[in-house]
Amino acid sequence: MASVRNPVTRPHQSQGDVTLTVYLDDFSWEFHGMGEGTHLGRMTTYTSSDLLDAQGRMHGAATAANGDKLFWVIPGTSGWHLEFAGGTGRFQNASGGQNTVYESEHVTVYDPELNALVTTWSQKAEGQITY
Fold first, then answer.
1. Nearest-CA neighbor of 73 among 89, 94, 90?
2. 1 is a domain residue
3. Which of 35, 90, 102, 111 is deepest in the core (most CB within 10 A)?
4. Quick check: is 5 in a domain?
5. CA geometry: angle at 22 spanning 34 and 38, to 5°?
6. E strand or H helix that includes residue 22
7. pLDDT of residue 77
8. How many domains does the chain have?
9. CB 7, CB 130: distance < 8 Å
């Protein structure tokens, strides 16, 4: 039985649709995703330009169907790999990571009301999670 005192490593998969919005007034950005994850169920994920650390790493969170959060960080310049970095509820001490594979072409449109470039795509990811 897995617990905070007895974590178990398991395969992890996710898939979903992503929207990246870049605001041209100040070049800030937001990243939103919706999809399904092996240990998350129906999930949403979020990060923004406000969540970059001093080393340029992007931090974010995926919110599981039950409200638990799984925190993640992209350690380098590649958005293809991310590492799990704890969370809330059952993901309190989560670790592991996943690699992303893009399933569709990126489509970018200009939104004049937001004065922003909006890019959408679909992706899948596979890796391992320990919790």
1. 94
2. no
3. 35
4. no
5. 20
6. strand 9-23
7. 65
8. 1
9. yes
Q: Is residue 99 part of a domain?
A: yes
In 3D space, the residue among 62, 48, 66 whose CA is nearest the CA of residue 12 turns out to be 62
Rounded average pLDDT over 91-104: 92
The letter for the amino acid at 34 is M
- Domain span at residue 96 reads 12-130
**Calpha distance 12→130 (Å, rounded):** 9
Alpha-carbon distance of 109 to 61, in angstroms, equals 26
Cα 86 from Cα 89, distance rounded (Å): 10
CA neighbor of 70 nearest in space, from 44, 91, 97, 99: 91
Residue 131 CB-half CA count within 13 A: 23
Which amino acid does the sequence have at 118? V
In whole angstroms, what is the distance from residue 49 CA to residue 16 CA? 21
* 84 domain residue, yes or no: yes
* Model-wide pTM > 0.85: yes
